[in-house]
């Protein structure tokens, strides 16, 4: 669907379409010959390079986009994940009560499957693009209607979507939940109810909460972080957080990586789901260069967070973006211009991907920087480093009935190769989720050993593991040994 107020020169697009992929490859070859930081074996498409790093690189496509050959050729060449721009939303899939229409969504899925691309389902519950029959329901009917919608749609796409944005944009900017019809009917419980219904319908899909202006640490992302902790502590099937990332040129939040990392440390996947970077028009060359810097920063942030599974741009080219229609005076937010030519943002994103060593995809996260503690920490006493290693526990957050802790394992005067941390819970606490280590529990005794990737710690250096637990926050004495 073309955004309003944004004429598109389609004839030019078609004529230049077949050249677009070639132009992209040439741009990459030029970058290589210019000596930019790309290894000899550097992949020449976003998807190939992302896959070599165990990630995906995606795009949003609408049914209208499928008819524009230059755009879909470019999408198929560069991306391995598709998010339907509008076709799986409530207004498209259940325009009147009980009357479902999956035709447009099916076309997107079929395009993706025939080009070896996966699909992010978008979305199941959202206050916008919601038919008026839903928002005007008697409140005592909303839960049943919502769960029926989720069950029917998630069952229809079962096995065909990698992930679902189950809850889309639930928050106001101040960190309060939007007072939409779902909230009015069920309070905050609508979120858990929706996630449970989606999980029952498609147990293999990764279930996300997706929002904008949560990319940096702020009131909105703090509220979502608390919600995520609460949902996980109650066993609600939440698997990931989508950071939409609709940025303004030069304004990537400096806390992006640390913010994603703190969610990842809860045991969640994280993803950049709707990336674009708008520029006041007309865009000059320094702004296009800055946009490249921005795209590089975003890709690098994802690569630095082990549980960041991928990056998706919200569209393909400047000629079909939603930005000019919604933000008059702004445009040029994508990696390709309206003639499908790659911009500095494309080269920067590809270089960022190619500048780190390839990894084989792994479900277990490698060790990563510690998040900024969100609440007043309460560390256990720091012991002197006299033996092989020491372990220090910090309570990073707590809530009624649960808490989250981080344990720092520090090597003594010699490097350690493998470590074991033990403690005894004082009051019946139980771990609900643990990351960056492997646990065994016997009654109140807990033993945590290093994961496969963080057993080697240099002399004086440290690594961390973390967990969420049920019960009252506690700081038991820890012992650390190394074989
Ligand atoms: O379907 C009607 C059509 O019948 C009518 O003739 C036409 C006239 O303008 O409008 C059509 O609806 C448009 C709809 O897209 C479907 O194409 C709406 O006007 C238009 O506002 C709507 O825009 C979509 C927007 O979500 C709505 O909030 C954009 O295409 C879509 O890219 C955008 O996507 C959202 C994500 O879902 C969530 N995050 C933000 C992102 C950007 O806004």
From TrEMBL:
Domain GH10: 40-352
Key word Flavoprotein present: no
GO-annotated molecular function: endo-1,4-beta-xylanase activity; polysaccharide binding
EC number: 3.2.1.8
Pfam families in UniProt: CBM_2, Glyco_hydro_10
Domain of life: Bacteria
Region (Disordered) residue spans: 353-386
Keywords: Carbohydrate metabolism, Glycosidase, Hydrolase, Polysaccharide degradation, Signal, Xylan degradation
Reaction equations catalysed: Endohydrolysis of (1->4)-beta-D-xylosidic linkages in xylans
UniProt biased composition (Pro residues): 360-384
Family assignment from sequence similarity: Belongs to the glycosyl hydrolase 10 (cellulase F) family.
Protein name: Beta-xylanase
């Amino acid at each position: 669907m073309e955004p309003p107020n944004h004429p598109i020169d389609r004839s030019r697009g078609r004529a230049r379409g077949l050249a677009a992929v070639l132009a992209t490859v040439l741009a990459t070859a030029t970058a290589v010959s210019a000596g930019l930081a790309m290894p000899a074996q550097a992949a020449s498409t976003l998807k190939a390079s992302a896959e070599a790093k165990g990630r995906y690189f995606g795009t949003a496509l609408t049914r209208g986009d499928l008819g524009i050959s230059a755009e879909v050729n470019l999408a198929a060449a560069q991306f391995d994940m598709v998010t339907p721009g509008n076709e799986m939303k409530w207004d498209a899939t259940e325009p009147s009560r009980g009357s479902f229409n999956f035709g447009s969504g099916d076309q997107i899925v079929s395009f993706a499957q025939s080009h070896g691309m996966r699909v992010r389902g978008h979305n199941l519950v959202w206050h916008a693009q919601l038919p008026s029959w839903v928002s005007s329901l008697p409140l005592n009917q909303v839960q049943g209607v919502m769960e029926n919608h989720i069950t029917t749609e998630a069952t229809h796409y079962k096995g065909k979507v990698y992930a679902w944005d189950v809850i889309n944009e639930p928050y106001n900017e101040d960190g309060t939940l939007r007072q939409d019809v779902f909230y009015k009917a069920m309070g905050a419980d609508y979120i858990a109810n929706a996630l449970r219904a989606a999980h029952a319908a498609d147990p293999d899909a990764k279930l996300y909460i997706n929002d904008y202006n949560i990319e940096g640490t702020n009131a909105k992302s703090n509220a979502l972080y608390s919600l995520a902790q609460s949902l996980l502590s109650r066993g609600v099937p939440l698997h990931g957080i989508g950071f939409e990332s609709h940025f303004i040129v030069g304004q990537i939040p400096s806390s992006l990586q640390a913010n994603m990392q703190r969610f990842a440390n809860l045991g969640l996947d994280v993803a950049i789901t709707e990336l674009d970077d708008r520029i006041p028009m007309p865009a000059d060359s320094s702004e296009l260069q800055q946009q490249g810097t921005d795209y590089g920063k975003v890709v690098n942030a994802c690569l630095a967070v082990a549980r960041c599974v991928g990056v998706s741009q919200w569209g393909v080219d400047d000629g079909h973006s939603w930005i000019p229609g919604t933000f008059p005076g702004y445009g040029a937010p994508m990696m390709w211009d309206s003639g499908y030519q790659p911009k500095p943002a494309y080269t920067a994103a590809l270089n960022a991907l190619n500048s780190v060593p390839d990894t084989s995809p792994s479900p277990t996260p490698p060790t990563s920087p510690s998040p900024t503690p969100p609440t007043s920490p309460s560390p256990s006493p720091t012991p002197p480093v006299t033996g092989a290693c020491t372990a220090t526990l910090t309570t990073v957050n707590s809530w009624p009935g649960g808490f989250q802790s981080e344990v720092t394992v520090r090597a003594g005067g010699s490097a350690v190769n493998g470590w074991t941390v033990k403690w005894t819970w004082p009051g019946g606490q139980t771990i609900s989720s643990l990351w960056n280590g492997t646990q065994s529990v016997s009654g109140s005794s807990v033993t945590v050993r290093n994961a496969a990737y963080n057993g080697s710690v240099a002399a004086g250096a440290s690594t961390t593991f973390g967990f969420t637990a049920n019960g009252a926050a506690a700081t038991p004495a820890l012992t650390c040994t190394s074989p």
